[in-house]
Amino acid sequence: MSPSLIFKTLAPENNKNLLWGATLGGRIKTGITSSIIFEYTAKFNDRSDAWKNPIALGYEIGTAGHAFQMFIATSNQIIPQNLYYSTPLDYPEGEILIGFNIKRTFRNLRHEE
User: Fold this and answer.
1) Residue 111, domain member (yes or no)
2) I need a surface site. Which of 37, 70, 74, 94 has the fewest CB within 10 A?
3) Cα gap 96→93, rounded to integer Å
4) Which of 56, 57, 48, 58 is nearest to 87 (CA)?
5) Cα dihedral 67, 71, 76, 80 in deg (nearest 10)
6) Structural domain span for residue 95
């Protein structure tokens, strides 16, 4: 859980300068090397009729050096400040984004003498 309090001096027209909300994210292990990941963001003030709380749901598979993530989301914003001021997609109408990430872990093979 991550509460947010954002103040923008140059807020878009018809928006408040001060916004507050919270993001809840998590990971549920479904196996030794796999898990389900999720994130949900709620804005508590300055809600318009076009605002839908952004949500993301993904599946992660890990190997010895890589992690592969496939996910669907209703917003293309990553930075929380931009997420609260953007209009997410209308997921009740079927508007979603599909994404894929690859994470690589490198090991230091130098041995201490």
Assistant:
1) no
2) 94
3) 9
4) 48
5) -70
6) 2-102
